[in-house]
Write a structure and sequence with these properties.
The chain has 433 residues and is an alpha/beta fold. It has 15 helices and nine strands. The two termini are 43 Å apart.
Length: 433
């Protein structure tokens, strides 16, 4: 009820403000008119009353604005206290996608250039005749192509082997375009999953293709392993997958890139780093020297092999190295399976080294030396290039409040004060770590 009362009070203040501004303005204007007619006493009185009304209207306007703001804040607090969920960045269902046709940008650039380019010979009679001839030849060529296309479509319709949507896609396939900028933990994994799921469901096998412009220096093994598995879904669906690397695809980044049917890379892009690394600082000797006790309790012989505070043993180091070797072996098997041409040379390239793309091509890590823009330009006449990106939601005051981590604590306190929490906090599962 509190938000409703505040909203009603704010609305009343706005109405009062409008009335006071109108009345005050009329009185001030009428007072000026009376002063001009030598009715100074009445004119001064009306101007004074009008000025007071204008000052009061400013106060009511400020009061109404504050009421509306408090109403929005209290609505957010009451919703969360009553059990409404806070927005979750990891909720894949909340991610919305937008589609944009990139072919239009190429055509738009050509039209803009023609508009500003100074045509020094445009007025010559010979040029005008040549333009008409070119235009006529172009129209005839388009008519012939259209007629040929109609014949092919009629043949396909008579056979009945393809649906109307399949016929449409057959003669104008789609190249889905995705940009992936990877960080340590692949924070955009939910977006990538949504993009891949959309492509797998709407793409046409053996007709469409997917272009992923990838940039990543690598990161978490599990996160990049899952991201690679998402790209594998595209290949399994029968849709051609093209990976373009303009800057870097190293370690986990190359784990993803190797999945592509074709890997394109700019000449100076960094490629490779097929290896595994971990580093753990250990303060055991420092703590021991300063007589500081640090206790670590585990269940399971190898639950902790090398950690920050415990004593490092030879057995623990051997076990950790064994685990890294297992991950490295799985990494190399993944690359060799994704790129059969590297099967016999995987031990030579799986050393953790990285190379420039021109060198990586000689080693079989890259197929084509080409930038992503160059590749897009090469296919724009044969394909509709459709970019799939996240549709950013316009942020309002409520969503901003919900995104503040500090608001969670405030709302928890509010819940305990009002008794509206309704549900007890469930204990965390024991085997989380």
């Amino acid at each position: 009820q509190i938000p409703a009362v505040l909203s009603a009070f704010g609305a009343c203040c706005c109405c009062i403000t409008a009335a006071f501004v109108l009345a005050g303005g009329i009185l001030v204007a009428y007072g000026s008119y009376q002063n001009n007619r030598q009715e100074k006493e009445d004119g001064d009185r009306n101007q004074l009353i009008g000025s007071i009304l204008l000052v009061v209207s400013a106060s009511t306007c400020l009061l109404g604005w504050c009421s509306c703001c408090f109403s929005c804040v209290s609505t957010a607090v009451v919703d969360v206290a009553a059990g409404a969920p806070l927005p979750s960045s990891g909720d894949q269902k909340r991610i919305k996608l937008k589609f944009r046709r990139l072919n239009d940008e190429f055509q738009g650039a050509q039209d803009a250039l023609n508009h500003v380019h100074f045509d020094v010979a445009g007025d010559m009679k010979e040029i005008q005749t040549a333009k008409k001839k070119e235009h006529k030849n172009k129209e005839q060529e388009e008519k012939q192509q259209k007629k040929l296309l109609e014949q092919h479509i009629q043949t396909d319709l008579k056979r009945g082997a393809l649906s109307v949507s399949d016929i449409r896609r057959k003669y104008r396939p789609i190249a889905f375009y995705i940009k992936f900028d990877g960080d340590l933990l692949v924070s955009t994994l939910d977006l990538l999953t949504k993009q891949v799921s959309t492509i797998v469901n709407v793409g046409k096998a053996n007709i469409d293709q997917v272009i992923v412009v990838l940039s990543s220096p690598g990161g978490s093994v599990s996160s990049y392993g899952l991201a690679s598995s998402q790209l594998v879904r595209i290949r399994k669906s029968g849709i051609k997958l093209v990976i373009c690397v303009d800057t870097v695809a190293a370690s986990g980044g190359y784990m993803m890139a190797s999945v592509g049917d074709v890997v394109c890379a700019a000449p100076f892009a960094m490629i490779g780093s097929i290896g595994v690394v971990t580093q753990i600082p250990n303060f055991h000797r420092f703590l021991d020297k300063n007589s500081i006790d640090a206790f670590l309790f585990t269940a399971g012989k190898y639950k902790r092999t090398v950690d920050v505070i415990g004593e490092v043993t030879d057995e623990g180091k051997e076990k950790l190295q064994e685990e890294l070797d297992d991950i490295h072996r799985a990494f190399k098997d993944h690359v060799a399976l994704a790129r059969p041409k590297l099967k016999d040379a995987i031990e030579d390239v799986g050393t953790g080294e990285y190379w420039l793309a021109v060198q990586a091509k000689e080693l079989g890590l890259v197929d084509v030396i080409m930038t992503s823009d160059e590749y897009l330009e090469s296919i724009r006449l044969q394909y509709d290039i459709i970019e799939i990106a996240e549709k950013k939601k316009k942020s309002g005051i409520l969503s901003k409040l919900h995104q503040l981590d500090g608001m969670k604590g405030v709302m928890g306190l509010f819940s305990s004060w009002t008794g509206q929490g309704g549900q007890q906090h469930q204990p965390m599962p024991m085997a989380v770590v």
